[in-house]
Amino acid sequence: MTVEIKTKVRKEIKERLSKQNKAQRLRKSSLITRKLIKLSEFKKATFVMFYIASSEEVETALAIEYAQKVGKKIVLPTVLVREKRMIASLVKDLRRELSPGPFEIPQPKKKYIREVPYESIDLVIVPGLAFDRQGNRLGRGAGYYDKFLAMLPKETPRIGLAFDFQVLKDLPTLSHDISVDKVISA
Q1: Mean pLDDT rounded to a whole number for the chain
Q2: Where are the domains of the chain?
Q3: Between the N and C ends of the chain, which has fewer C-beta atoms within 10 Å?
Q4: Does residue 149 sit in helix, strand or coil?
Q5: Between vectors from CA 49 to CA 165 and to CA 119, what angle results, nearest 5°?
Q6: 104-117 confidence digits (pLDDT tens)
Q7: SS3 47
Q8: Is-contact 59 26, C-beta < 8 A?
Q9: Where are the alpha helices (DSSP H) in the chain?
Q10: CATH no., domain 2-185
């Protein structure tokens, strides 16, 4: 039953994301970025793991740009398909070092992969199709983030970014699902 509900929610949220216009998406993303950079978890962090947003997700470019400007180290997910896992990689030059990876999501080119140990990451900004008020997260179904988040030290803050309609009252979860500590929305 849980799997069927997750499939239904994924479909509904993807539909709503695709109907959101670009100007609205960017305006809300800007509000979310302002909330994020005010958080103590963000201010204290040195190594911040972001994600590169798809054309429908909360845009992370402004937050990444700001983080670089204030001296934070930018870490991005790198999917290793053969190994069926995701690692964190330090990125120094976003324009030069990235290329489309699995699922067409930009990630560091092979020659620029600089793996960052789990314990060095101070904050993880987590994408999701939906979140609930308890911090449960619904991803796209491949499980890369759940496996990655499970390896992080428990004290590493995990923050989800979402549009208001992506934050639901509650989500069904399975034993391997990893929640976030906070969800920032607009």
Answers
A1: 94
A2: 2-185
A3: N
A4: helix
A5: 125
A6: 899 999 999 999 99
A7: strand
A8: yes
A9: 2-19, 22-38, 40-44, 61-69, 94-97, 144-151
A10: 3.40.50.10420
